[in-house]
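We were asked to recover a plausible sequence for a given structure. The inputs and outputs are reproduced exactly as logged, with field labels preserved.

PROBLEM: sequence recovery
POSITIONS: 344
GIVEN STRUCTURE:
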């Protein structure tokens, strides 16, 4: 199998490539702005450094040569939905639209990353791919630009599927794991919540809980997420074709505040951070103050995973506690973390 991965150096991309190369003989072509997470694969990976806005000819040529296309390029940060909604639309929708249409024109299989955000402020206890409503706020709430762009692409891909496009859409629910973000970036909102919190704790900075951190999320370990993607790629007897799958762990539901407190507890087990439980400052901040007036939040986001379980036999196994310990361990193994601990 030959696969093209766009946004390959990102969190999902580099973990997926590792699994592909360690477990299969598949060939992978990839593009991203840099290859910092991919250097270990050397010439085995056909990597092209570039911007998808610019390298359209290279991308079209690669699509013509591969079997499967996975466009992982995105901006999964609510801060940017509010501050740069037009750029979010241009990257998430317009560039992906070109790729979708190239897959249709060239007859290639498409594995498309949607998002749990497409369900918006749905009030159902669990979100189901086939039945749950998608509820967005008013136009003035720029938060929904990302979700709206993804949802429209989902609908377009489904329509193309009726005309013959071989596709699978997957919706990640808060995937987490080692090397999630650049933890040294201390700008509020630049990292996803786990690495944002951990970075602040490592630097002995206050941790901001948006609206008190009461929001509930279901966190999914990257190992479980990659297991799901490998099953989708293998597609036994076409069981993933024409399907939409939630990929999340409904057993790992936790409030954002509880996650912050868990990180404090885990970090306190490391030399230099024994007093972190007494020193950590968890402070509530209004969403408008943290993200801007275009932000709107969802209180709960829990996946129904019966579709992927029935079609591919997939179930998540890694607990939230295990996942958080692995993340802390990964970042604490870096020399910089030890220096900060020594100076605490």
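RECOVERED SEQUENCE:
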């Amino acid at each position: 199998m030959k696969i093209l991965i766009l946004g390959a150096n990102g969190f999902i991309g580099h973990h997926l490539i590792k699994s592909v190369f360690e477990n299969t003989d598949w060939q992978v072509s990839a593009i991203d702005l840099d290859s910092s997470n991919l250097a270990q694969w050397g010439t085995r990976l056909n990597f092209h450094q570039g911007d998808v806005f610019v390298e359209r000819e290279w991308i079209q040529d690669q699509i013509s040569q591969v079997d499967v296309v996975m466009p992982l390029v995105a901006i999964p940060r609510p801060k940017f939905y509010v501050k740069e909604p037009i750029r979010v639309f241009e990257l998430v929708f317009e560039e992906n639209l070109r790729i979708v249409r190239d897959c249709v024109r060239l007859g290639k299989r498409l594995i498309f990353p949607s998002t749990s955000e497409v369900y918006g402020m749905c009030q159902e206890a669990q979100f189901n791919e086939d039945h749950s409503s998608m509820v967005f706020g008013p136009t003035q709430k720029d938060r929904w630009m990302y979700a709206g762009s993804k949802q429209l692409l989902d609908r377009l891909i489904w329509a193309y599927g009726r005309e013959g496009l071989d596709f699978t859409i997957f919706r990640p629910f808060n995937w987490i794991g080692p090397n999630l973000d650049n933890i040294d970036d201390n700008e509020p909102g630049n990292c996803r919540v786990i690495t944002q919190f951990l970075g602040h704790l490592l630097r002995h900075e206050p941790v901001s809980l948006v609206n008190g951190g009461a929001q509930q999320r279901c966190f999914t370990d990257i190992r479980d997420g990659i297991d799901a993607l490998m099953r989708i790629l293998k597609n036994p007897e076409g069981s993933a074709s024409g399907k939409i799958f939630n990929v999340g762990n409904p057993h790992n539901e936790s409030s954002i505040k509880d996650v912050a407190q868990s990180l404090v507890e885990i970090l306190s087990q490391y030399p230099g951070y024994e007093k972190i439980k007494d020193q950590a400052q968890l402070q509530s901040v209004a969403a408008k103050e943290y993200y801007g007036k275009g932000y709107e939040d969802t209180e709960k986001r829990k996946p129904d995973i019966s579709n992927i379980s029935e079609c591919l036999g997939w179930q998540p196994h890694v607990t939230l506690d295990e996942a958080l310990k692995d993340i802390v361990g990964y970042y604490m193994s870096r020399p910089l973390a030890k220096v900060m601990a020594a100076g605490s």
